[in-house]
Amino acid sequence: MELERDIQIVIVAHLDDDQCIESINTKLNIQKLRFNDELKKIPELYSTDDNVDDSEYVNGLQMKCRFIKSNHMTTFIREEDRLIEITEPTINQSHIDVYKHYPIRSFDLYIVSARLNHKSLYVNDWWTIFKTLIISSNNDSNEKQIQQLCAPAFNIPLPKQLAYQSSCLIKFYEMFKSTLFSIIKQSTTSSSSLLSTISHIRPAIQLSYRPEILGWFDRRIANHKRLKKLLDNNCICLVACGTKKTSFQYDFSLIEFHIISQFNASEWQLHTLVKRFTMKHLRCPLDNSFLRTSVLWICEIHDLENYHHIFEVWISFMRDVCRKRSLSHYFLENYNIYEEHSNLIDIINTIDYTNIDLFIEKLEENFIFPYVHQYNDRMKNLIAYFESQPVLALKMKIIYNVTVKSQFPNADCSLNEMCSILCHLSFLEDNDKENIINFWYQQWKPLFIDFNRDDIVIRPQSSSSINYRPDQLAQQMTASVFKLIQMDLIQMINIIKPKLE
Predict the structure, then answer these.
(1) At 86, which CATH number?
(2) What tens digit of pLDDT does each residue of 13-64 get?
(3) Taking the model in full, what pTM does it have?
(4) Integer Cα distance of 44 and 218 in angstroms
(5) d(Cα 338, Cα 323) in Å, to the nearest integer?
(6) What residues form DSSP beta bridges with 8?
(7) Taking the chain, what is the end-to-end CA distance rounded to the nearest angstrom?
(8) Which domain holds residue 30?
(9) How many other β-carbons are positioned within 10 Å of the β-carbon of residue 202?
């Protein structure tokens, strides 16, 4: 299974002015970069062994090939306990794909070794290390729960209530997972590698000045209350992509990041709702540039804090975009970035403003998680199967009422909820074509649910805070494992440990 992709910009050089840049096609944002003395000092860009005939302009493809072998890649390939694959750079893509395949079978050894190798750490030391995970993450309720589920990896036991709830979900899952896997094997001819993450590593040349290409954007934001601060922020880059080896394009990812990081509560809510809309209704990456641009435009044009229904503003905007088949690039003048998305027009045209609250409520039920498209496919097949087997579905519901409902005040005991639990937990067990690896019962339960310490008592959550559904906890359990296995836990402890001594 491939998780949602991550995009990272790596700066390999800086330009102090535009003397080296030659515009080839302004409309298509294509440039060439002529060497100067400073650029020739950058090993990723220039070598004395380069072909003399090609040495007048920076070779973007060659830059990406050298980048792979440079020290810049150390950050992305230093983990020794996982398989790492790097794709060959191409002319037309600005990024290099780095795949990491995480060994779920050795997850228990990974956690145990972290505990045993640091026996000398005191309770407060473990708590200090655990807090670094909390500080570095968002503080929404879903993320807080995922963080809490990570606690045993830091030698801190789960709260009893959370352990009981997790245990009953695993018990229910173990009873019915064979049904799910038989359906998966029938409906798919091949299985992708489980827990494979993909990072788009984008080597870039950052501009230390304000390029003329931003003139249209700068004039728009000059008097904007929030955005005018960006006039002092030079974070535009050149990245290598196009039809030729020497083609470069302006990249606006960093300035987009700065804009989004300054969103107020209403703007951030819209940003999240659009992602949830994408997750539920469209089969495209959650960070789709077309949809992200629509949010940027709305947040510039409208003061969303003055609107009761902020999502209604986006729907109205997108109806106009789809009718005109036009959406202007956020930074470049006279540049249409409109994209066709299957079902987009039909969905937004069927949304009735009189019941938009219900539509938003349905969106908010869906957490954003990195395997959403695979999950949706699996849910569709599983629900269809149980609807065709009413006797089995009734048996499952009776067992569910006994094993799960008593632990969750908000359980609705619907077929959708039961299937959702099975699907979420299944994503950590189906990487073997012949055998189910029994991750939850053989690895996670002994190390997380059954793990206790005599010197620590975790305060239970108040009953009012237990407002999540069983399927939400199942998603959070899976997400916590993803979080743990993607971080280099042992290295994280080794970095912080000296500060505790």
Answers:
(1) 3.30.460
(2) 999 998 999 988 766 788 999 999 899 889 998 887 776 556 789 999 999 9
(3) 0.74
(4) 32
(5) 11
(6) 201
(7) 41
(8) 6-102+199-254
(9) 22
